[in-house]
Fold these 2 entries.
Entry 1:
Amino acid sequence: MQENTQSYWKRVVAVFFLGWALMYANRVVLAPLSMHIGAEWNLTNTQIGLISSGFFLVYTLFQVPAGVLGDILGRRVLLLYGYVLHGVGALCSGLVGGLQAFTSMRLMCGLGQSTYYSTQYAVVSQAVPPERRGFAVAVVNSGMALGMVLGTWLAGVMVYRLGFGWRVPVLVLGAFTLLLSGIMAVVVKRDAPAQGKRKSTSACVTSGLLRIYVSTFCSMYGFYAILTWLPHYLQVERGYAGDVAGAISTVMPLVSVPAGIAAGRMSDTLGRHRLLMFMLPASALALFLLPATEGTFGLLFALLLYGVTGKLTSDPLLVAMVADITTQDSYATVFGVLNFAACAATVLAPTVTGWVSDVTGSFHFGFYLASALSLVACASLLGYKEQRKEVLFVGTRAQRGQGAGPGFRNG
């Protein structure tokens, strides 16, 4: 039985790793194609940013409802229906011909993706032993980095090297997304809907959780400023060719994969808060250096530093911190609120950064704003009292099936 349980959580981590990879590939594939999309419909940078912001507005608005429904109706059902809808929206984004239809499909894609964060992290937090939680979440999160590389690389190769139209990589990713939906249906076990009275929503607004929400919002802002605009910035302001800009943009996510997994494993023994107090100021420095340095060497250094300390590396620690202080029956709801805070930044960052570039004629001030918010992310966690690992995990194996409270999992 124990061997089957261990095998199950590893399969879940693997399939959710791939789930994030395709989620992010479908998001970032449009970034290196923004010049082509803008040229087809004669769009300004602000209008291009609004398409991305519209996607994330829908994604954000449905985070909390999706989390609540996941805890009530069952996480697997919501997870699968949402992922299929995401795949349909992604595929149709490459099939439709008009701007209005394209925008509608991006909104559908955002709606489908909105069910993923809360439900899959609830499944992971319940399936993975607490003493392996930081490591497991980091592995799952590293799929985001793979997706960034995959989406950027696919667009660069297929459009800038092979000469295909911008719709081709969008169609390819949409088809693979629908295929993965079927694999998820096989791997993820059925779960029973919650029974009895729901817990008060006050469980989502404790002092510790509020600090984590603020930190998540601020760190996510900088990440999505880069995610949305870096390839465009490299081409327009730094003068790099499209394929070279795409290659440079993959540096940060590639570095974040081993860095994130290492940080997750370290957090299981050293504590999450201690590592974050180092990583968040370092990521602020990286965002400042991105526009401040001249030449390719300085640019690569800034991206390497952000890859080691930025959102893709710090986010698994924040997710694990939430799981450590939240009871099982509230997992999906609390993760929905957490991602709502994060997604508020994803709505603002693309449009605000694009607007700043239109007003000032440069993306520099947009990146400086992102740097300042990363410092706020660090400040919000000052004074946070983390439960010590030896207290949190004592008796884990003996009590794993007894609902021992925050930090323990049932069955």
Note: The chain has one domain: 2-187+204-384.
Entry 2:
Amino acid sequence: MPEQSETDIVPGTQEEVSSGSQAAATVGKVRESFSRAEVLRVLKLSSQKLSRWERNGIYQRRENYSFGDLLALRKLEALSSQVSLREIREGLEAVRERYAQLSDPLAQLGLFAARHRLLVSHEGQQMEAVSGQLTLDLSSQAPGGARALPAKSQRFSWVADEWFAYGVSLEPEPERRAEAIQAYLHCLELNPRHASAWINLGTLRYHEGNFEECERCYRTAVEIDSEYALAFFDLGNVLDETGRLTEAIDAYQRAVAIAPRYGDAHYNLALAYEKSGQRRRAMAHWRAYLRIDNTSAWAEHARLQLRRGLEKDTLQLVAVKRRQSGRR
């Protein structure tokens, strides 16, 4: 990890606000436009999820996506894991009416979830997004009612997010993946509990063939967030790649337990069961995958594997009946 002293960013001053953007600018030019396919890949979003957000009026469909869109969509992904789509849609509608001067509230406001509600922080006030009712930010109050200085990780977290988004913007260009790695390392130096940065860094290490470091990154992510299905899925992949099939199966099982409709995890779990000779268990996950996706090339392979499994079961049943008949 490149060394960077705390004095590089002066906390609590305008230098803190500007230094993240200036530092990012010194690494290279940030891409200004991304295709839909690139957005799905670098943010690890499914096409169905993005389409669902668009159908629900949560995010407007675009031909091309900006760097700001990447930040907004990442925020939306985090919110959608804690708040219902209905709460997000109604909250954004209310916020747009309340702050008509803002062109993109999702990107421009501090939105976060608490107890399955969408909250908004703006100009020092915290309120429920839908009702506009003010709420008390207990985390910012010191004993006696004085406002406490935010923890270092909180003061720098938005700068860390900026480095994360910059790394994401570099990933589609293979020749700039070394820069993406540096961006994620900067992000993690500022916020070591940024689970998504650990995941993306691990994926880049995987592509380098550095499986030991890749595994360390994924394990750190699941330690930070034990409900992170993608982290368990990626951990399963590197364990599978390095021949630890039993551990890989455990990781994939965690992924599907957290996200039962995680098609890729069902698919890889079925493959792992096949490799370990547990055909019947594999068949259950081929079926689960086909309930999620029954049209792609992967679905064709799942159907083929399921059909082969059923044929083997039929042949075994016939053999058993013949043996039983011979004993009579």
Note: Residues 1-29, 136-157 have pLDDT under 50 and may be disordered.
